[in-house]
Design goal:
Elements (H helix, E strand, L loop, with lengths): L4 E4 L2 E4 L2 E4 L2 E4 L4 E3 L2 E3 L5 E2 L13 H12 L48 H34 L5 E3 L6 E3 L14 E3 L13 H14 L3 E2 L5 E2 L3 E2 L5 E2 L2 H19 L3 E3 L15 E3 L13 E6 L2 E6 L8 E3 L2 E4 L2 E4 L4 E3 L2 E3 L23 H11 L14 E2 L6 E4 L33 H15 L39 H48 L10 E10 L2 E11 L5 E10 L4 E9 L2
Parallel strand pairs: 7-23, 10-25
Antiparallel strand pairs: 1-2, 2-3, 3-4, 4-5, 5-6, 8-9, 11-12, 13-14, 15-16, 17-18, 19-20, 20-21, 21-22, 22-23, 24-25, 26-27, 27-28, 28-29
Helix pairs in contact: 3-6
GO cellular component, one term: cell outer membrane
Subcellular location: Cell outer membrane; Cell surface
Keywords: Cell outer membrane, Membrane, Protein transport, Signal, Transmembrane, Transmembrane beta strand, Transport
Amino acid sequence: TTGGTVINTAGFTNGASTLGATGLTIAGGPSVTTAGINAGNQVIANVAAGVATTDAVNLGQLQAIGAVADNSVQYDDAAKTRTTLAGVASTDGGVTGGTTIGNLHQGELSATSTEAVNGAQLFATNQQVAANTGAIAGNTTAITNLGNSIASGTIGPVQQSGTANRLALVAPGSTGASPGALQTLGNLAAGTAATDAVNVSQLRGVQGQFAGVIGGTVNPDGTYTGPTYTTAGGTTATTVQGAFDNYNTAITNAAATANRGFDITTARTGTGTVTGTAVANVAPGTRQTITAGNNISISQSGTDLTIATNPNLVADSLTTGGTVINAAGLTIAGGPSLTTTGINAGGKTVTNVAAGSIAAGSTDAVNGSQLAATNSSISALTTIVGGSTIGAVQRPGTGDRLNLVAAGASGAAPGAAQTLANVAAGLLAAGSTEAVNGGQLAATNLALATLGQSAVQYDDATRTGVTLNSGGSPVALRNVAAGTLATDAVNVGQLGSGLASTLAAANEYTDVRINAVNFDLQTYKRDANAGTAGALASAALPQAFEPGKSLVAGGVGTYRGQAAFAVGVSRIFDDGHTILKAGVNRDTRGNSGANAGIGYQF
């Protein structure tokens, strides 16, 4: 530690800047961590124009979008249900005032079209209305006859099949007795009564419940195919009890292995030293003590041990190539900087920018994808094309699909979901295309509930936990395979092996660190002893004592196994008062020294 700078195993701290395991943080300023970039309410300057969808955008790009938006036709509010054109408000139905939409392309004329039409199309419609007036009267009889046919079930997409109380979905050009290709009955509401038809989402919900509880498959004919459980060693079982029996065997074997304990010994690498290399067995239940030597720190938290040295690195700044970290922050030569004054992108593109909050008062940066969405919303158009027919069951267009249609709606826009009631029980068999009713589905749900009582299930709908025999006695989970991923369960054998490896690694690391410290102390001690010998050799040099005379002298010194020699020269000037003396020395550690002095005697 020096001044406000600290470098240790926890990270690098200089003033308000901290560089740690999760990134760089500046107190009261920006931060760059694994959670993202927080500008700390500072300006991000010199940002290049974003290109990719996740790039940050600069003010110039936003202002360009704003200029386009000011001259565009926009919705009245966020609900996007109404657009009011600018201009003088009209009070006479548009005879005067209002805004004219010119050069309008002809809109699509269909039952579901929502496109605007122009004056020419409206004029043609008026002409056609006059011509159609006479034809409408002639169609009345034909419509009446068609209604009678629909009521008797001899025409339309749903007809009597010829069998009592049985209807058939009919392909175009076919009859109830010979309905043709299979048809899809769409827009079917979820059945609630016992004889109501059920839709696909209800059936899929049942299949999902089966798979979520114990796996397996619900077959088209309503039967159930159970799953196969594969346990450790590739052993399979077709019942839950069989799977647990396999696990019980594995756990029993693992317990027998754990009861043997583990062996412990010492070893060395590099310059490490050990005392005692005998192999000793550590029986289960015995306690081993790990003792911290000099400069070693051991901290315990429950069953976890942390072994470390106590180094303190001192530095005013940290420089790697063109990157400098100091009290002001992080600076990269020719690139971005992150300091207490803000974030400077250095003319570079800021990529992989998370979507910022788009709201009043938001100071988040936005990315190119958000800007693209803004551009799209300015010019978005929606086109809906469909067909229509008559009756409670209609075909939305071409293809083998039928919709149940609400009152006043059409096949392409059927309105609210409809309930199809009084549905006879459909055939539950492979290849059956008949609709099933709520009573059949209730029987399937009952079978699922009965089966789920003995299955292993998640604790709740979040699927984040499984409790075996919740509320009862603990359950042994046996035959557990050795885990390989970070979230896999481990067995007793892996736990014993991991503890032995951790202890061996801790001993090896401790030995290396202690030997390194001991070597450094011995080096410093020898250098200090040699320096003392040099000082003694220089002190042994004699000095001239007569005016006008000079003296060349030599001297030696020794101290605790180290030695040194010195040579020097001295002179007393003719005035007998001024004395000059200088010398050099060399010790057995290869170090040299020098001294000089001048005096005046009186």
